[in-house]
Write a structure and sequence with these properties.
- With 304 residues, the chain is mainly alpha-helical.
- It folds into three domains: 103 residues, no CATH class; 34 residues, no CATH class; 155 residues, FAD/NAD(P)-binding domain.
- 38% of the residues lie in helices and 6% in strands.
- The chain is built from eleven helices and five strands.
- It has a three-stranded antiparallel β-sheet, with no helix packed on it. A two-stranded antiparallel sheet has the order 4-5.
- Helix 2 crosses helix 3 and helix 8 packs parallel to helix 11.
Length: 304
């Protein structure tokens, strides 16, 4: 799944420089493989996923035991336990999070059955017919990764040559060249996870994409072009490249319900995490560097 990224780039011959909650399962797997000389098992995807699921369960069971150790009320503790795969939801690493539920002025309201709050009134919030009175409501909704894509892309800056929105262009699946450009959308460059190389360091991923975009823009300007756009053929070739490296992640996303990876249970939910380049960050770096080294801007059409 998406969070295999940290494991994919772990080198057993190098010192382990990262030790945190994000990399726990990856680190435990690497340690296990080192102990058993089991790295050859990675050649078998089914065996790899079996090993990962075991370490995944161990990590989540550790978290569930930690909830019991810290949260004093058994009912509240049970509601806080994560009964899902590691990273199906964003983990909370704050040292004060769980102890907060032991405070006399803190009550956990479970909205899992009602799928959220019922309504907001003048006095507070109604959940399952019960009104909870508040002096102040803090909206901490965070960011969205499964918002309907038309909300993100069905606006003027994302309209193509014929007025088609990028959302409609991706109606049957993501279509890009190198994850940053799309046919029919001249001078449009985007960064993100869509058909790009996934790595545990998002900043490094954005740097990779920015370098590639900067190269294309510079070369286009040097050649006197004011418009640059990928061909439909180049876009299709990249789709096939992405599919060559594709990983069946359906089991993970299905078991994450309710979760943001599947739009809270929606089949075929589209989000910006969709269809990444599963060959990995460094494999993609090599592909892009080889493409740039030819100096031909293969697959791009330049107009003056």
């Amino acid at each position: 799944n998406f969070h295999n990224a940290a494991f994919a780039f772990y080198n057993p011959g190098e010192p382990d420089l990262i030790c945190d909650g994000w990399t726990e399962v990856a680190r435990n797997m690497a340690a296990k493989l080192n102990e058993t000389n089991g790295w050859a098992a990675l050649a078998d995807p089914a065996k790899f996923m079996e090993l990962k699921e075991i370490e995944d369960y161990r990590a989540m069971e550790r978290l569930r035991r930690r909830v019991d150790e810290i949260v004093e009320d058994p009912e509240t503790a049970e509601k806080l336990k994560p009964y899902y795969r590691n990273m199906c939801k964003r983990p909370v690493f704050n040292d004060e999070y769980l102890p907060t539920f032991n405070r006399p002025n803190v009550t956990l309201v479970d909205v899992s059955e009602t799928k959220g709050v019922e309504r907001i009134t003048e006095k507070g919030i109604v959940v399952d017919g019960v009104e909870h009175e508040f002096d102040c409501i803090v909206f901490a909704s965070g960011f969205e990764i499964t918002t309907a894509l038309e909300r993100q892309f069905d606006i003027a800056p994302f309209a193509g040559r014929d007025g088609t929105s990028l959302y409609d262009h991706w109606g049957k699946g993501f279509r890009t060249l190198h994850g940053i450009m799309a046919h029919g959308f001249p001078n449009h460059f985007a960064t993100g996870f869509v058909q790009g190389g996934v790595t545990a360091s998002t900043t490094l991923m954005f740097e990779q994409q920015a370098d590639h975009i900067a190269y294309i823009i510079k070369e286009a300007q040097t050649r006197g072009a004011t418009v640059v756009e990928p061909t439909a053929e180049a876009e299709e070739d990249w789709i096939q490249t992405v599919r060559t490296y594709s990983v069946d992640n359906s089991t993970f996303t299905t078991e994450c319900t309710p979760g943001y990876y599947n739009s809270e249970g929606e089949p075929n939910g589209r989000s910006f995490l969709g269809d990444p380049f599963w060959g990995g960050f460094y494999e993609l770096t090599e592909l892009l560097e080889n493409w740039r080294s030819t100096g031909t801007l293969e697959g791009l059409v330049l107009e003056k």
